[in-house]
Description:
The protein is of the alpha+beta class. It is 22% helix and 11% strand. A two-stranded antiparallel ribbon has the order 1-2.
Amino acid sequence: xxxxxxxxxxxxxxxxxxxxxxxxxxxxxxxxxxxxxxxxxxxxxxxxxxxxxxxxxxxxxxxxxxxxxxxxxxxx
Length: 76
């Protein structure tokens, strides 16, 4: 995602153990968003976006796809 309102930092926890301890890193990758939403490991895009919304105090999105319209019936 490229956006002027979003920034990211990557930290090598072996080189900065104090940072790893502060964020309680137990697995990688660990993502922390605004210090109030976090997860470990690779996650689906929807979960990542919901974590961003959660960090902003907004409700998650219903990512379910809408039901397709019924197929037209054809006379036999």
